[in-house]
Amino acid sequence: MTQTTPPGSLGLPFIGETIAFFTDRYFAIKRHERYGPVFKTHILGETTVLLQGADGNRFILGIENDYFEATWPSSVKKLLGASSLSLQMGPQHASRRKILAQAFQPRALSSYAEAMNLISDRYLDRWVKQETMTWYPELRDYTLDIACKLLVGQDEGSKSNLGHYYEAWVAGLFSVPVNLPWTAFGKALKSRGKLLAEIEKLILDRQKLPTPAQNQDALDLMLSARDDDGEGLPMDELKDQVLTLLFAGHETLTSSLASLCLLLAQHPEVLQRARQEQMELVDQPLTPETLKQMPYLDQILKEVLRVIPPVAGGFRIALQDCEYGGFKIKKGWQLLYQITATHQDPSVYPDPQQFDPDRFDKSRAEDKQKPFAFAPFGGGVRECIGKEFARLEIKIFAARLLREYQWELLPDQNLDMVVIPTPKPQDGLKVKFSKKPARSI
């Protein structure tokens, strides 16, 4: 094995290059241009190696559990909780994933469409009345209401204590883990305790019900699950799993919806074509079956997730010394597989900065050129468990907008992306929103 470690800079003492990593969306792309396909840095207190493109993703995600194990920054570990699915390993992870995956199977998804449409009705009506608004916080409430309703059975979760405490909790996820009252992490840790107390009330209330619900949500499935000894999941794990699901089913979706609205507003020719597709289906209800008849909308959503993926990558830790691209990766080093940088690879996606849904047309299928070249939901054994839930929610939302509403970006706002914890426009996406004239395109 080579003894040469990857090139790169470890930055400043203690903080390394963490600030640049958090604030620069193209952090990795710039360093790959300087150092090549493999480089090292120091972020979030760890020496971290970044591998370029689809081949790097395949190396990390394709051999997990042999050379690498999933990990997260210290702040995330403490705020998600030790019993979170995201932090579980080996057989325990496989067992819990199998349980939770039942909430995202086709039969379950079919039952979710009606609730998604009803919640959409409430928000769309409200936005028309508002006329002008900062859309991102509204979208955040919308996705939280859907996640709370369909995953844990709570109505209007954004108005509950869950919604109140959630914002401070998520703001500290990717932060320096210093537990002081005025730090983002300290505030988040305090909010985590309050969130868990609210989640415990939900669990206890559900346990008091005499019979299980006919359409089981994720909470029902976790409460009915039994391990090999016939024991149910302990309360501490139930709370951590619920918190993880609410984060996964809400935060990334908010980012994706905001990116969709922004990019469509900026590309009127794509918007016009998308509306035309919807006009051909306008008399059909939005069911999972109808949603399969929208190929151009599928291409748009893929291109949104390529251009502005809601997650930039994922962390792994090396379980043993290994080699990649002629460089030694040491045991205990952190690795980061890349989504944003991979999606900007010009060897796979020509003119990658251009928003072009046709690159996903069957005749081009640029994403099929290499495994892991398109990875908005990760990959391997830890691919996002709720990806079909996300696709369903985004498609229903997009189809409703295209069929019935119009929006335009308000002037004098900063549309640059803040990237942590998930991408969002700096000023929150300010728009003018209205009902579309009947039968107009």
Detailed description of the structure:
The protein has 441 residues and is α+β, with helices and mostly antiparallel strands. It has one domain: Cytochrome p450 (Orthogonal Bundle), CATH 1.10.630.10. It is 48% helix and 11% strand. It has 17 helices and twelve strands. The strands form four sheets. Strands 1-2-8-5-3 form a five-stranded mixed beta sheet, sandwiched between helices. It has a three-stranded antiparallel beta sheet with strand order 4-12-9.
By CATH, the architecture is named Orthogonal Bundle
Please state how the strands of the largest beta sheet are arranged side by side. Answer: 1-2-8-5-3
* Cα Rg: 22 Å
Overall geometry comes to globular
Series of secondary-structure elements, N-terminal to C-terminal? HHEEHEHHHEHHHHHHHHHEEEEHHEEEE
Per DSSP E runs of 2 or more residues, the count of β-strands stands at 12
Low-confidence stretches: none
CATH superfamily annotation: Cytochrome P450
Distance between the termini: 62 Å
Approximate strand percentage: 5-15%
Number of helices: 17
Helix-strand blueprint:
Blueprint: H1 18-23, H2 27-35, E1 38-43, E2 46-51, H3 53-62, E3 68-70, H4 74-80, H5 90-101, H6 106-130, E4 132-134, H7 135-152, H8 161-171, H9 184-207, H10 218-224, H11 235-248, H12 251-266, H13 268-279, H14 288-291, H15 295-307, E5 313-318, E6 322-324, E7 327-329, E8 334-338, H16 340-343, H17 387-404, E9 405-409, E10 417-418, E11 424-425, E12 430-435
Parallel strand pairs: 2-8
Antiparallel strand pairs: 1-2, 3-5, 4-12, 5-8, 6-7, 9-12, 10-11
Helix pairs in contact: 4-9, 6-7, 6-17, 7-12, 8-9, 9-11, 12-15, 12-17
